[in-house]
Amino acid sequence: MGPSASPRMREVMGCFIQHIHDFARECNLTVDEWMAAVKMINWAGQMSDDKRNEGQLMCDILGLESLVDDITYQKALKSGKPVTASAILGPFWRADTPTRPNGTNISEDTPEDGQLVYMHGRVTDVESGEPIPNATVDIWQASTNGLYEQQDPNQKEHNLRGKFVTNSHGEYWLYCLRPTPYPIPNDGPAGKLLTLLDRHEWRPAHIHLMALADGYKPITTQIFDKDSAYLSDDSVFAVKEGLIVSFAERKQDPQAGLELKYDIRLARCTETFS
Length: 274
Ligand SMILES: [Fe+2]
What we know:
Helix content: 10-25%
Number of domains: 2
Bound molecules: fe (ii) ion
Strand content: 15-25%
Low-confidence stretches: none
CATH class of the largest domain: Mainly Beta
CATH topology of the largest domain: Protocatechuate 3,4-Dioxygenase, subunit A
């Protein structure tokens, strides 16, 4: 590396090159095997676009995104009280998700087997416990057929996703679907690799969310239905104990028979990034 490489680039790439060479030596990697991997990486790139991120999915099934997420979370834990636990972003988040008024039902065309949930909670400062107004809670989930809207031509654009802004009490509220397990897409290299490894494609039922507020570290996480299958063998290794939630019965609400309360604790930004 030349003298202009940044110290962090030198550290990360030095470590990477050392390990990838050791890896090749340790398993006696052949040219054919290396080329098969190169083709798989190229295939992942070719099938990725702004709606699909196959490279990220490949990292997910290898547990890499979950590991990196955990390293980042453990670093955050050392610097203060426990913020809401994080989990991987996954490949289905969209940057252009619309902001919707609190109380909106994000299930625009609820499937027959779908159960509506009233989801609500507060976003608070982890140190003071004070509510954080004007925080954004970005939520996305798959439908009961196992597909996110960008994978499914029968769902409306931005179905089952929305951003919600907290009120002066730090509260957000909406209607969504009780999540159901789904298989990750198996028509690309990630699916091919799972087959080669004799592994299943299923993820436990979950809702993705991201919380952001001015002056606070953003959090990306997923919450998991405690009654779901695959909690102990998630194909992308994202389940953490603190992210398992219970859906309660909800009475006297014509819109939803279930309720989920989920509070989010954010830590103030103390570091500056360059
Ligand atoms: Fe997901």
